């Protein structure tokens, strides 16, 4: 419920302030370049921060018989109004070291003036200023509510900047850019509100009122301005303006406005006649103006420009996500009490709903009655025989927004007939709480209904995995269901061009396995453990291969199948042939930068990413490899590379298990044999990495669970949550 409140608040604020924030962002982006245009002008003097006020006034007096006033702006440009020896008035920028005139004052262009007026008041004067100030306040609240949603999504404040899984372009960049832009946007909004409040005279007013006893002012001892102690102690960088005496009367004086106070100085003796500190409201006014406009800093101006563009993207992506959720509304042909099958969906951003709708349509197509709704709409179903739950997980194992009431509703709504159920969890292995809410739902349902299938998990919306579950479930249900895969996915853009530079002969390997090396046509950023997505028929069907990075190239270990879509495609590629694919980041399976020890467990082609990791193990982190193969000859494909890593001390120990030799052995058997060593590795902050078949993974996890509970008195999940167990199995 809490998530819903924050999400609806976030959306309501965005909708209500859309027009004003849009205009403010566009004009703000344009105005961010005005300070940059000023800063690049050649009016700033070298070593400005070391020049004293005494030096500058002295050189000006030497060059000009009369000086009226002196100003220093936020760009550290020195401007003055003087009378020349010829009696002419001269206004503009001067060199504070030499007194030379260097240029006329910069006047804002008409374009910037127009944009400034639009940004400040929308040309509506006081009414416009009010709405602009209000939109700043609303944008601040949007930023706060968005931050709360990010914290809830990540699980805690400490994890705000942890990895974000790229499930959807709009959602991913909405969160990533939101995190990066949060502080600048907060500053923009707070200063915008402050300046608006100031314009409406709602802040305490301050007027300098010096008290000077003119009867005590002395004309002696008269000293040169360059020797005034007050002027010598003031750096020019501290000065805002100087008003010079109007006449030679002793009652006329210098008025020095500094950044934090104002001084009255005797024009003859240099004595400070009065000094008044500015209040905090004055300091905050100047600070707000500079922070909001970017004046005086090219870097901050660029940050403001980027933040303004990001706000525009947030407007687009936020509404795009909202429209996507609305498009994924659930529609029914039958009433809930007429349906034999009930599909309940839990989704945070709508990505699970296409899978649920696909299943719904196919059940309808085979002539069965079905009802689909959100988990939060759970009710009684009079004729239901089977419940199917398809749900994502939010944050740290929490329910999605439309499923956070389900567990409570399950207890309140009692079904009167016998019902079976199946649960499918959608999530990402990049998160430690992978599909945790689905497991929670499955556990809760077992208290009321009969389980048809064990909970099935789907990583990164895998269409192939979903198809596997559909086949299993339809067989149990006695239905002939086939969901068209193209209805579940959108063909991705293939942006990475690769060239085949080497490939081993599949016929020479007893397991029909081959290595293929691919060279990127341009510089790509990837690591061993990332995934290469190949589209053999240039349609929705993708095949994923774990990457080993060797000398900047991609090396894949591929199992060949006669009818294998991906393996046939790669095996038939000729040398020097180019093709397009895409690289998928898989940071949860990277070789650790720091670890007391690394244990690699692989079987078959699962060694592929490990070959790349060992190649890049330049820090010589102690690494052990447990490798499962069918026969001794199976190892020949990798033997040369592995022996090279051993000789270079990148791999400390290799242990091979052969499942088809006389002494039949599996990697989990070797792990069980080395239980004490495995336990010590985990105890000492070591990392275990597993890559290969799901069958092997199941056996390895069983052994590791046994070792952890019997030797370390802790569950395996403890080490997995500490990122000490990394897996990529298929």
Show the helix and strand layout.
Layout lengths: L1 H15 L1 H14 L1 H7 L13 H11 L2 E7 L5 E6 L5 E6 L6 E3 L6 H12 L3 H30 L14 H31 L29 H4 L6 E5 L9 E6 L2 E6 L5 E6 L2 H14 L4 H30 L13 E6 L6 H13 L4 E5 L11 E7 L13 H7 L7 E8 L8 H10 L4 E2 L4 E4 L3 H15 L18 E8 L9 E8 L10 E4 L8 E4 L1 E3 L2 E7 L5 H8 L5 E7 L13 E6 L4 H8 L7 E7 L6 H12 L5 E6 L8 H7 L1 H9 L3 E6 L1 H19 L3 H6 L3 E5 L1
List keywords for this structure.
730 residues; alpha/beta; Rossmann fold; 5 domains; 7-stranded antiparallel β-sheet; 21 helices
What is the compact description of this entry?
This protein has 730 residues and is α/β, with parallel strands linked by helices. The chain has five domains: 2-22 and 114-204 and 294-322; 42-105 and 208-278, no CATH class; 329-487, 3-Layer(aba) Sandwich (Rossmann fold); 496-588, Elongation Factor Tu (Ef-tu), domain 3 (Beta Barrel); 591-729, Nucleotide-binding domain of ferredoxin-NADP reductase (FNR) module (Rossmann fold, 3-Layer(aba) Sandwich).
Share of helix, binned: 25-40%
Structural shape: elongated
Give the beta-strand count.
Answer: 26
The number of distinct helices, counting runs of at least 4 residues, comes to 21
Structural summary, described in words:
The protein folds into five domains: 2-22 and 114-204 and 294-322; 42-105 and 208-278, no CATH class; 329-487, Flavodoxin domain (Rossmann fold, 3-Layer(aba) Sandwich), CATH 3.40.50.360; 496-588, Elongation Factor Tu (Ef-tu), domain 3, CATH 2.40.30; 591-729, 3-Layer(aba) Sandwich (Rossmann fold). The chain is built from 21 helices and 26 strands. The strands form four sheets. An eight-stranded antiparallel β-sheet has the order 4-3-2-1-5-6-7-8, with helices on one face. The two termini are 36 Å apart. Strand 12 (420-427), helix 13 and strand 13 form a beta-alpha-beta unit. By secondary structure, it is of the alpha/beta class. The radius of gyration is 36 Å and the shape is elongated. Helix 7 packs across helix 9, helix 7 packs across helix 10 and helix 18 packs parallel to helix 20 (694-712).
